[in-house]
Amino acid sequence: MAQTFKLALIPGDGIGPEVVAEAIKVLDAVASAEGIEFEKTEFQLGAARFLETGDVLTDEDLVAISAHDVILLGAVGGVPGDPRLKNANIERGLLLKLRFSLDHYVNLRPTVIYPGVPSPLASHGDVDFVVVREGTEGPYVGNGGVIRAGTPQEVANEVSVNTAYGVERVVRDAFARASARRNKLTLVHKTNVLTFSGNLWKRIVDEVGATFPEVAVDYLHVDAATIFLVTDPARFDVIVTDNLFGDILTDLAGAISGGIGLAASGNINPDGTYPSMFEPVHGSAPDIAGQQKADPTAAILSVALMLDHLRLPDAADRVRSAVVADIASRDGSARSTSAIGDAIVAALS
Amino acid sequence: MAQTFKLALIPGDGIGPEVVAEAIKVLDAVASAEGIEFEKTEFQLGAARFLETGDVLTDEDLVAISAHDVILLGAVGGVPGDPRLKNANIERGLLLKLRFSLDHYVNLRPTVIYPGVPSPLASHGDVDFVVVREGTEGPYVGNGGVIRAGTPQEVANEVSVNTAYGVERVVRDAFARASARRNKLTLVHKTNVLTFSGNLWKRIVDEVGATFPEVAVDYLHVDAATIFLVTDPARFDVIVTDNLFGDILTDLAGAISGGIGLAASGNINPDGTYPSMFEPVHGSAPDIAGQQKADPTAAILSVALMLDHLRLPDAADRVRSAVVADIASRDGSARSTSAIGDAIVAALS
Ligand SMILES: CC(C)[C@H](C(=O)O)[C@@H](O)C(=O)O
Ligand SMILES: CC(C)[C@H](C(=O)O)[C@@H](O)C(=O)O
């Protein structure tokens, strides 16, 4: 009997449904070739759903989604400035709520400059690194508050919360990945200014590092890290960093590697207590939605990360090889979203 | 009688004294040409002073420095990892203490890609923007703390403090600069996640913006801003942002515009209650200290910002023109720190 996985699909808003359709095409093709099966349930979540029902993500949604093995998400978010969405905050209420509720403490974001992809950098070596971004702590926790809102005496605080428990588990995951790659780990933080959390991150990296003697450890302040990402991105193997720094660095990493049309990500709960979620780094791009203009490659590469996570490395490599082959054959002429999906399916074998 | 200014000099550590020496050469030359005078007092501050005396910055130092009209700082910080500096934190105790004590709420960081400077970007238009970074609030305040330090139950919090008072004054300054430039202001924040402080920044930008109808206002999340800095930096005129985002964006801006060897900055108290401080963005680079290898251009451009601040625009423009002329004549061959200083003096005319 075929191995079967329960897949929760969240196509979302804007270009989300278009890119997810292509990702599923590729997934179905590789699954049938590998003799595995995906039972899909689609969830209507995002700005469109909010406008229809007033709900962003209900407890029932969360329970239903949690009953799956993995999640594939397209993109969520309405038209910027839409007054009807003013109080929705789809990002916090949906995307971040999923990451936090499902304990996605490893936010995995690989960067590869594929042969044939035009990078904005004039020159770069062999770029192939992965950012392990903490996903459940730091400035993203939503702690803090406001007094005297709307007055000249307003004070707005944001609290970044960092725990040894939370830092240790993501650092351990990052070391394990470095050990399976090129044995190099770079901690990125701002320890000279954020000394409370910085000391914690440094201590944990030292402690966990002692159990991975084969991994060389390096440290960069976040400001300096942005410099190296444009002047010498080939130096990186695994970067481990906090939630906010990871957010910033991975958009920059996406840009130098040919645009976020190619950037895939995994929101991973390595313990397997909750389903992990895979999504392109790009947003819903409502301006080009429904026009078959979006590049589904990031969504398709997110499927590869999902297959990795399900311990189906052959299937994952098949997807990645097909993407690499397709990218290498690109000549700059425009193709529709589905034409790109079809080409990648054709390249699968 | 010549107009006279009291200048506090903090050469600092590493390459600091070398680059300050060249900045002073240029300052003296332009001052004598313009008929102005600078009375200099040198302050020995930094890692070297700490190792000698155990002091980082005393109250007496602060009082003495405050009695000056302006401050020029080279760079501070010892050899990374020097165990004797373990508990010093020169950055917080000296650089940030000066910025906070002297109420440097405008941290001004211009970026220009000068003709002839090799940028890591394959292509870019006319890049000339300025980042107005808030200098006295945000995650830099040092609020927060640790419980159960060193244990598996450690919790480390960092509090970003943002006030309407603090945001309003820097936003006002940024709008005034935009109005005197190309009438474009971009707020950079992360309002979708840091909603407490994000709402405050947005509100204040809306309110102050209403009094600058000629300035077009734009908003970018900090992650997206890093993308545009490498794909379309010419789009920016004035960026206004918080302390930490400004730190990150200006290092990236320095990198795309030819390296932090050229990046100048001003820590400005626009009210004139305290002396403003001008410094290259680069650090003390102890590895190349004393070898006449450092590029003093960033320090010299910081002198130009200082002259701007003292309302000596002719003198400032003279310095900038000399730097531009020198940069245009660079052919990539190595010159000593003092040879670059001499060449810029010679180009002053
Ligand atoms: C949409 C936003 C909340 C999100 C984040 O900040 O994490 C996005 O930028 C990302 O990187 O996935
Ligand atoms: C040295 C450090 C405290 C400082 C900062 O973070 O502000 C530096 O990076 C800068 O940008 O001037």
TrEMBL record, chains A, B:
The keyword Transcription regulation does not apply. It comes from Herbiconiux oxytropis. Its EC number is 1.1.1.85. GO terms for molecular function: 3-isopropylmalate dehydrogenase activity; magnesium ion binding; NAD binding. GO terms for cellular component: cytoplasm. This is 3-isopropylmalate dehydrogenase. Substrate binds at R99, R109, R133, D223. It is an enzyme of class 1 (oxidoreductase). Its cofactor is Mn(2+); Mg(2+). It catalyses: (2R,3S)-3-isopropylmalate + NAD(+) = 4-methyl-2-oxopentanoate + CO2 + NADH.
